[in-house]
Amino acid sequence: MTIDIRTATIQPRRQTYANVARRIGADKPASRYEESMFDMQATGEFHYRPTWAPEYELFDARRTVIVLDDWHVLRDPRQFYYGTYTITRSRMMEASEKAFAYAERRGSLSAVSDQWTELARHYLLPLRHYEWGANMNNCNITDIGFGSAITQAAMFATMDRLGIAQIVSRIGLLMDGGTGTSLTAAKQDWLEHPSWQGLRRAMEDLFVEPDWFQVFVAQNFALDGILYPLVYRAFDDEGQKQGGGAISPLTEFMLDWFDETSRWVDAVMAAAAKESEANALHLSDWAASWTARARQALEPLATEVLHDREGEVLDGIVDDLAARCRKIGLRA
Amino acid sequence: MNAMPPLKQRKLSLKERYSHLTRGLGWETTYQPMDKVFPYVSYEGIKIHDWEAWEDPFRLTMDAYWKYQAEKERKLYAVIESFAQNNGHLNITDARYVNALKLFLTGVSPLEYSAHRGYAHVGRHFVGAGPRIACQMQAIDELRHAQTQMHTMSHYNKFFDGLHDARHMHDRVWYLSVPKSFFEDACSAGPFEFLTSISFSFEYVLTNLLFVPFMSGAAYNGDMATVTFGFSAQSDEARHMTLGLEIIKFMLEQDEGNVPIVQRWIDKWFWRGYRLLGLVSMMMDYMLPKRIMSWAEAWEMYFEQAGDALFEDLSRYGIRKPKYHEVASKEKHRLSHEVWSIFYNYTHAAAFHTWLPTEDEMKWLSAKYPDTFDKYYRPRFKCWSEMAAEGKRFYNPTLPQLCTTCQIPMGFTEPDDPTTICFRSAEYKGERYHFCSDGCKDIFCYEPEKYVQSWLPVHQIYMGNCGGAEVKDVLDWYHLNFGVDNFDYEGSPDQKLWDEWQAQKAANPV
C-alpha cells in the first residue's frame, strides 16, 4: 500500500543558482554542499590592496606556486558545509563525552600504571601545543588560500585542531585531578624537552612559510600523516600492553578524525597533482621533504615510548604515507 | 612515581580551566622570532603591552560549540525543508517583498562570507591566543551565516528572479560596489582597524540597523524561512557584539596613545557604515509591503538613544561620539526617499524591481515623515506617476557620478538644505576626486592612496572594462537578465507569476 498526499504543485522556474548550474553543467537540482560552496569568494573587481600585503590582491591565486585553472577542483569528498560539519563533530564528541564521563566516574585513569601515566603525560599532553600550531597553520590557509572550496574546509580543520587540543588538555586535567599541573608541565616539555624540539621547530618554521599549499602538505599530510598513526595507534597499542588501556577511549576521537580528514587531504592533493606535471612535482617534493623532517622530529619520542621497535614502526608509517602518495599521483 | 597530584594543589576555577583550554595553548616562539610569526600587529600604531589582559568576551570550548551549533543547524534545516515542501513562498505578504531578499542575498550575504575570511585573517595574526580564538569562532560563524543564507534563499531562487547569481553580481553590479567596497576596505586594513570596523562599528553599533531590519521585515511579511535563520543567528550575533565591545575596551585600556587612533577609526567606520545603511533605509520605508518602523524611528531608537548610552560609557576613555553623527540625524527624514529615487531612476540597471508607493503607502510615509515627505517627495512621485501614466516612465539615461569613498551616486543633499545636491571634492596628485559628503571626503583625505584604488563601477564602464559600451552589454556582463530581473515590478515576470499563484489559491480555498 502507498499513501498519496495531494499537494498543489507549482513548477519551479529554475532548479539551482546560475553559478552552480554552470559548474555542474546544467540547471538541475544541486546539493547543499554545491549551493553553499561554489564561488563564495570574490575573484576579481577588488577595490583596495591589503595594507598588510600590498603586493597581492585581497584574495590572490599567486600566494602559492601551485597553479590551477579552476580552484574549485579542490573539493571536499566529505561535502562538508557548516551544518553537516557541526552535526558530524557533535556526534563524534558525544561518544568522547561518554568516554570522559566514564573515566571520571570510575576514576579509570588511576588504574593506569604509574610508569605509563608518566610516559603518557610526556608523549601525549604536549600535543595540545602541536594541535594549536596546526590550528594556526590551517587558519593561515583559510586566510590566504584561494577559492571557497579549499578555504572553507581549512576553516573546519582550524576549529578541529582547537577542539583536539582541548580534548588532549582535558585528558591532562583528568590525570592531574583538575589542577592543571600536568598542563603546565606539558608546556615545559614542549618548550624545553629535547625530544619535542624537532617538532616545535618544524611548526614554527611553518608559521613563517609563505606558500600556503606547502603548509597544507607539510601540516595536514606529512606531519599529521606520521604523528597520528605513531601516537594514537602505535603508542596507544604499546599502552594497551603496559596497562595504559584506559587512555584509549579518550583518544578515539583523534583516530576517527584522522581517517576522515585524510580523505579530504588526499583528495585536495590528488586534484592539484592531476592538473599539471609542475604541480605534481611541487607536491611530491614537499611531501618527501616534510615526511623526512616529520620522521626525524618524532624519532626521539618514538624511541622513548617504543624503545627498540621505533625504527620498524616508523618505517611502516612512512611506507604507508608513501603508498598514499602514489595513490594520489605523487612520486614517492 | 605517584600519578596522583600532591594534596596542596587545588582544583582550577572555571575561568582558569578555560584559560588552560584556550590561551594556555599558545607559546612564545623561539626558533622563529615572534615579530615574524605575527608580522601585522604593530604597523597600525596600536600598542598592546599585555595580551594576557584580554578578557574573554565569552567562554566557549569546541565541544560545547559543536553541540550548540549542531542543535541550531538541525532545527534550522528542518524549517528550511518544510518551507520548501509546503511552498512557503506563497505565504508572504506580497511578491514585492522578495526584492528585499534580492538586496539581502546580493548585498549582504557576500559580506558574511568576506567577514569569514577577514576574521580568519585576524584569527591567525593576533598575538594573544585568547582574542585569536574569539576571532576564529566568529570566522566560522560568518561562514555559517553565508552558507545558511544561500540555503534559505535557495527556494526563493527557484521561483523568483534576481537571486540567481549573487556573488557574481556582488562583484560587478554598480550599487553592489557599495557593500563590496565597504567590506574590502575593512578586510584590507590592519587587524585592529578590521575589528574596530566590523566587530565594533558594524556589529555592535549598527547591527540593529542592518541585520535586524531584514529579519524583522521577514517576520512581518510572512517569510518563515528567513526569520528562522534570523533567530538561529541571534545567539551568534550576541557573541559577535560582545567581541566588538571587548576589543575596543582592550585597545583603549592598553595604551593612551591608542585613543586617537581608535577615535579616528570610529569616526571613519561610523560614516562608512551609515552610508551603507542608506540601502537599508530604502528597504525599510519602500520595499517591505508590511513595514516594521520607519528609518527615522529606527535611527532614533538604535543610534541616537542606544548610541548615546554607549558613547557616554566610552567617554571615560576619552572617546566621543563619531564625527558627523549630527549630519546623519539631519538626514534621517530624507535618506530613504533620496535612495529610493536613485533606484527608481536606474531601475533598468538594477537586479531588483522598483515601484512607486501606493496612495496608502504614501499616507504612511507622510505620517512618518511629516516635515519632509509631502513637501519634497510626494510631488516627485506624483510627477513620475503621471509621466508613467502617459507612457513616459522616467528613466535616467546617463550614468551617475559616484562618490569615490562610499560609491553611491551623488544624490544626497546638503545637511541643511534638502533641495541642493551635496558635492565635495579634493585633489590628489593632480586628479580631482568627488564626494557625497564631508564624511566621505574626510575618509578619502586621510588615506588617499587607498581610495584612489576604488573600483568605481561608472568609471569602469567608461573605461570599457564591463562588457561593452551599451547598457545591455553591461547588464549581460552583470549576468542580469534584461526585461526579467530589472525594471518596475509592475509588468515583471515575478508579478505575473505571483498573480497566477494568488488566483490559484483563491480558486482552491483550503
Percentage beta strand of chain B: under 5%
CATH topology of chain A: Ribonucleotide Reductase, subunit A
Rounded to the nearest angstrom, the distance between the terminal CA atoms of chain A is 58 Å
In terms of quaternary structure, the protein is heterodimer
Helix and strand succession of chain A? HHHHHHHHHHHH
Q: For this structure, what is the CATH class of chain B?
A: Mainly Alpha
What class, by secondary structure content of chain A?
mainly alpha
Fold and architecture overview:
- The complex is a heterodimer of chains A (332) and B (510).
- Chain A is mostly helical and 332 residues long.
- Chain A is built from twelve helices and no strands.
- Chain A has one domain: Ribonucleotide Reductase, subunit A (Orthogonal Bundle).
- Helix content of chain A is 67%, strand content 0%.
- The longest helix of chain A has 30 residues, at 212-241.
- Chain A is globular.
- Chain B has a single domain (51-507), classed as Ribonucleotide Reductase, subunit A (Orthogonal Bundle).
- Helices cover 60% and strands 3% of the residues of chain B.
- In chain B, α9 crosses α11 and α9 (191-205) packs across α12.
- Chain B is globular.
- The interface between A and B is large, with 91 and 102 residues.
Quickly list its features.
heterodimer, A: 332 residues, mainly alpha, Ribonucleotide Reductase, subunit A, globular, B: 510 residues, two-stranded antiparallel ribbon, 23 helices, 60% helix
Summarize the helices and strands and which ones pair or pack.
The complex is a heterodimer of chains A (332) and B (510).
Chain A: H1 18-24, H2 32-37, H3 82-106, H4 114-123, H5 127-144, H6 148-175, H7 181-192, H8 194-207, H9 212-241, H10 252-275, H11 277-306, H12 310-327
Helix pairs in contact in A: 3-6, 5-6, 5-8, 5-9, 6-10, 7-8, 8-11, 9-10, 9-11, 9-12, 10-11, 11-12
Chain B: H1 14-21, H2 34-37, H3 62-85, H4 98-107, H5 109-125, H6 129-159, H7 166-172, H8 177-187, H9 191-205, H10 211-220, H11 224-254, H12 258-276, H13 278-287, H14 295-314, H15 325-331, H16 335-345, H17 359-368, H18 373-389, E1 413-414, E2 417-421, E3 424-428, E4 431-435, H19 438-446, H20 448-451, H21 457-462, H22 471-478, H23 493-507
Antiparallel strand pairs in B: 1-2, 3-4
Helix pairs in contact in B: 3-11, 4-7, 5-6, 5-8, 5-9, 6-11, 9-11, 9-12, 10-11, 13-16
